[in-house]
Amino acid sequence: MTERATARGAERHSLDGTTADVLICGASFAGLAVARELARCGASVLLIDRYELGDRATSACATPTPWLHALGLSAAIRQEIPNMRFTTPHGSVRYRLPWSWSAFDYRRLCQLLYAQSDARFHTAKVHGCVTPEDLVAGDVISVVTDRGVLRAPLVVDAMGWRRVLGQRGFQPPEAPLSRGLEVHPDGHGEDLEVWIERSLVRQGYGWRVPADGEARVGVASYAPADHVRRPTVELSERLGLDPVRYQGNWFPHRLRPAIENSIFFVGDSAGHCFPLSGEGIRTAFYFGIACGRELAAVLEQQRSRTEALKRYAAFSAEHARAYSIAAGLQRAIPVLPPRLLTAGLRLLRHPRLIDRSFGWYLDQAHPSFATPGSELPST
Ligand SMILES: Cc1cc2nc3c(=O)[nH]c(=O)nc-3n(C[C@H](O)[C@H](O)[C@H](O)COP(=O)(O)OP(=O)(O)OC[C@H]3O[C@@H](n4cnc5c(N)ncnc54)[C@H](O)[C@@H]3O)c2cc1C
Questions:
Q1: Cβ–Cβ < 8 Å for 301, 41
Q2: Is there an atom of ligand 1 within 6 Å of 273 CB?
Q3: What is the reported pTM?
């Protein structure tokens, strides 16, 4: 049974001194995936976020449909999208993918994931200024929040790009982060559309994700110093859509250590968002499951926390090659002559090439990993 305990105003009592077996900080894709994986393991799991569950979407909320099916989240789907269209200044190419994307409802998805967990949820803001001395005392880790100090032997930072529980600051524009902004006007469409045009954004891309009556139109820049508001407005106006209902965020494009100071980092806090595409929901699920499995093994006394930390860190690092291939493409595509890029996109149109390239892409965090029993490779 899940227990929801979000409180406002005077009801927002102190949580100081609260303990749990597992403390998960951040209740979005990564944190909820960890919590879901710990369901039925009999442990006390405390999940906290500065906002109410599902309150603040920051993404276009498009992810491969097979992942949503694998996690039992089909009810959150607003629109399934089988095709992608890429547009450059020299033309447009449409691909039929070997798997489809789905645009989903963020709040509904968070609720569905939470309902599959046994976690207690509280709103609490974790402070970033935790000193190393405060952080780890013996086996129990103390986390300072605006509602008091919370303690657990197993702590997960799933709080996104800020990596709040990390020792070193992670601030744009110096940090390896991309920035994205989007608007959500009413609108329709069939394809997930991507624009690669330097006149729109120097290093990056624009997109339109159709979501059953809503168009999620945005622009991402790999160069953190470049602003994305003007191109976002420009793209939505070009499409005849009102630039309304803004949301945006930073997202990482480089892997970071998945453990630090006995804390597990998952999702954007570990740089798990994939470079080039900026796709970080599927990878947050994937690494969240991997982390949850290691935590479950500790709770079941199959291994120590130290062993679990080591195994999880090694699992994350094993993906470095795929991340560096994507990062290489992220650097190369913005400097390719646009005509060459267009020719390359046209070449890729062959179904065998599409199946191979998009198959490789899905393989890097494949939905079969969500099946219970699929194990982390032994390290
Ligand atoms: C405009 C835009 C569009 C995007 N579109 C897509 C897309 O369509 N598909 C895709 O796969 N990826 C997309 N991404 C990337 C994707 O959003 C991220 O990679 C993904 O959200 C990472 O999930 P996460 O759970 O690690 O972190 P987040 O989703 O960032 O969640 C972090 C959670 O931690 C909480 N938190 C943060 N700080 C604190 C604190 N101090 N105390 C307590 N709680 C805290 C936050 O409230 C939040 O709930 C997009 C990104 C942007 C910016």
A1: no
A2: yes
A3: 0.95
